[in-house]
Amino acid sequence: MSVSRPELLLSPVSQAFLMCFLQMKPSYSILNLGLGIGAIERAFHYLCDKQLINLSVMKSIELSPTVTECVQRFFHLPLSDIEIADALSYINTVTQQYDVILLDFCFDNADDDFLLQGDFLKQASNVLSESGELLFNYCPYSEAALVELLKLLKRDFISVTVVEFYDLKNIVIKASKSLGEVFDEAEFAMHPVINMMYSEKGAGIKKVYSF
Q1: CA separation (Å) from 106 to 17, 126, 172?
Q2: List of long-range contacts for 58-66, beta carbons under 8 Å, 24+ apart
Q3: Predicted local confidence at residue 109, as pLDDT
Q4: Residue 37 has pLDDT above 60, yes or no
Q5: Which residues touch 192 (CB under 8 Å, ≥6 apart)?
Q6: What is the C-alpha to C-alpha distance for residues 176 and 193, in angstroms, rounded to an integer?
Q7: Cα–Cα distance between 155 and 209 in angstroms, integer?
Q8: Count of C-beta atoms within a 10 Å radius of residue 193
Q9: What are the residues whose beta carbons fall under 8 Å from the beta carbon of 120, sequence distance 6 or more?
Q10: Architecture of 12-210 per CATH?
Q11: How far apart (Å, rounded) are the C-alpha atoms in residues 37 and 33?
């Protein structure tokens, strides 16, 4: 993180999550499954303070009480916005709908890859609103796993966008419940939200695929 500007998103993966704001809405309800160091929360609340977006809900789920305590202590995120729970279990208890679900987990092997197991993707789709979007970080540990994941996503979502980066094995995948516009990298780079959050333009995007 930047000490002088802690609201900035320095990771290309986190920057790509800003794609959720390309779908213009009067307000956004967001569920972030995994708090980490609170980078997404700091950035989104900053954008809200600058009146570039309006957040009706920003809910973060974190398994570790220690992580939650540190983030609240140093970054002063509202206690009401964070719930200590296991993300996989929590998604099955959600009763309200969200416009966006964010997920920043990485898997090195099939045994840990819960996206290919059970009904997580179907449940995420159920939790999302009619035009909702699921955005997540993914590390393709095998070609077969990536192909299988894309097949599962197309079962529960109408359109899928894959963002590939320079110098990173990770990709970001956006799965949408509606047929949105094809991702335009130039439009993305010029968007006021993106301009506000980038320390430098470009964000390392190498190629974008749409399915």
Answers
A1: 15, 23, 11
A2: 58/30, 58/32, 59/30, 59/31, 59/32, 59/83, 59/98, 60/31, 60/32, 60/34, 60/35, 61/31, 61/32, 61/33, 61/34, 61/35, 61/85, 61/87, 61/90, 62/34, 62/35, 63/87
A3: 76
A4: yes
A5: 52
A6: 20
A7: 18
A8: 19
A9: 88, 91, 114
A10: 3-Layer(aba) Sandwich (3.40)
A11: 13
Detail the DSSP E strand segments found in 37-87.
Answer: 55-62, 82-84
- pLDDT of 202: 47
Please name the residues in contact with 198: beta carbons below 8 A apart, sequence gap of 6 or more.
Answer: 8, 9, 15
What's the rounded Cα separation, in Å, for the pair 163 and 14?
Answer: 12
Q: Which residues contact 73 (CB under 8 A, 6 or more apart)?
A: none
Query: Using one digit for the tens of pLDDT, what is the confidence trace for 70-97?
Result: 877 777 777 678 889 988 889 999 999 9
Q: What is the mean pLDDT of residues 199-205?
A: 63
Written as six digits, the tokens of 125 are 């789709």
Domain ranges of the chain: 12-210
More confident residue, 210 or 77: 210
One-letter amino acid of 56? S
